[in-house]
Write a structure and sequence with these properties.
Elements (H helix, E strand, L loop, with lengths): L2 H15 L6 H8 L4 H19 L2 E4 L1 E6 L25 H13 L4 E6 L7 H14 L3 E5 L5 H10 L3 E3 L7 H7 L5 H13 L3 E8 L6 H13 L4 E6 L16 H15 L8 H6 L3 H7 L4 E2 L6 H4 L13 H14 L3 E2 L12
Parallel strand pairs: 1-8, 1-9, 2-3, 3-4, 4-5, 5-6, 6-7
Helix pairs in contact: 1-3, 2-9, 3-10, 4-5, 5-6, 9-10
Bound molecules: 5'-deoxyadenosine.
């Protein structure tokens, strides 16, 4: 490349990186960067934006995967209803509450309750769990139970739940319909909007590397998170799951995943962004890499040993002893000049 073209390109990149509002074309341009130095500049900018808007604290959220039963049949997910090879489990209400206490004892101030869509747990069961955890532990509670009724959301919010995670998975309606037999993107978005409207801190996000997904689709995912004013956004790589129709699809490209997180950070500014378990499954250094490209959240898994291997959303999901893992994480985070947050790590949006 001629020197003057080089200089013009560098100027263009730096102009885009320094914008405060981003058009779809800006986002696709950034996601398509391929030159090593350009990508480093993108990561550096994402890290600066993370520092300016979120600070150096990393928030740990202890997750309990309390049931792998699922009434949905998402084509990418190992928990899908039609996977009859998966041994199913449910934690009892008491086991869930005990596990939450372990999370709190480990010094973690957010408990994430996650499951497949499992109506075995009634509105009253979940309410009881929320109240029991809130009574005995000073923690924030995040629910991640899939789509439930608006009435249930109301009751759980009143019971004390703080946050709800419901990823939109893909903003492309055609891809969404191809992957979800019963659900509609429009309904998903209506749920997210409702959750926010009643005061939940809401989390959404996508899966990167889905069949037929384009760079424009990923740009739309980021823009949708912005439009929804999400408090948390998870951009995670697709990883094939053996007993699903997508078992032969390649895992997401690592670089594209990191670029998406970085662009997500630059566009969304103060949203919480996790370095996901899926990212650490894609590459052993995943969590650390994620924290350098804009992430500020990690969700250590506290699902009891006898169950955690069965929460098989995708293949080769990392398992570990959570107490040791949290110690290792703290060391890693400190060695990066960052700090593990000691508070609940609520939304950084001003309206909360
Ligand atoms: N690869 C990556 N992420 C997946 N999820 C489900 N299946 C996969 C997969 N094969 C994600 C979805 C869901 C979250 C709990 O797990 O985004 O919201």
């Amino acid at each position: 490349m001629k020197l003057d073209t080089h200089i013009a390109n560098d100027k263009y990149l730096s102009d885009v990186l320094n914008k405060s509002e981003f058009e779809r074309d800006d986002i696709t341009y950034l996601l398509e960067l391929s030159d090593k130095n350009d990508i480093q500049l993108l990561y550096k900018k994402a890290d600066e934006v993370r520092k300016e808007f979120c600070g150096d604290e990393v928030h740990l959220r202890g997750i309990i995967e309390f049931s792998n039963f699922c009434e949905q049949d998402c084509v990418y997910c190992g928990l899908r209803k039609s996977n009859d090879k998966l041994e199913r489990y449910r934690l009892s209400v008491d086991e869930i509450i005990d596990t939450a206490k372990k999370i709190y004892s480990a010094g973690i101030k957010t408990v994430v309750l996650q499951s497949g869509e499992d109506s075995h747990y009634t509105k009253e069961d979940i309410t009881h769990i929320i109240k029991a955890i809130k009574d005995s532990c000073d923690v924030a509670i995040t629910l991640s139970l899939g789509e439930r009724s608006f009435d249930e959301y109301d009751e759980w919010k009143t019971a004390g739940a703080d946050r709800y995670l419901l990823k939109h998975e893909t903003a492309n309606e055609k891809i969404y319909s191809a992957l979800h037999s019963k659900q509609k993107l429009e309904e998903r978005l209506a749920h997210l909007k409702y959750l926010k409207s009643i005061g939940f801190q809401a989390g959404s996000g996508n899966i990167i590397g889905l069949p037929k997904q384009t760079i424009e689709d990923i740009a739309d995912d980021i823009l949708l998170c912005k439009e929804l004013d999400c408090d948390m956004c998870s951009f995670s790589p697709f990883i094939p799951s053996p007993e699903t129709p997508l078992k032969n699809i390649s895992p997401a490209d690592l670089k594209l995943t990191l670029k998406t997180m970085a662009v997500g950070r630059i566009v969304l500014k103060n949203a919480h962004i996790p370095a996901t378990t899926a990212l650490s499954t894609l590459t052993p250094e995943g969590r650390k890499l994620g924290l350098t490209v804009g992430a500020n959240v990690i969700m250590p898994n506290f699902t009891p040993d006898e169950y955690k291997d069965k929460y098989r959303i995708y293949a080769n999901k990392k398992t570990y002893d959570p107490i040791k893992y949290v110690e290792e994480l703290k060391k890693m985070i400190n060695s990066m000049g960052r700090k593990v947050s000691e508070d609940k790590g609520h939304s950084l949006k001003k309206n909360i």
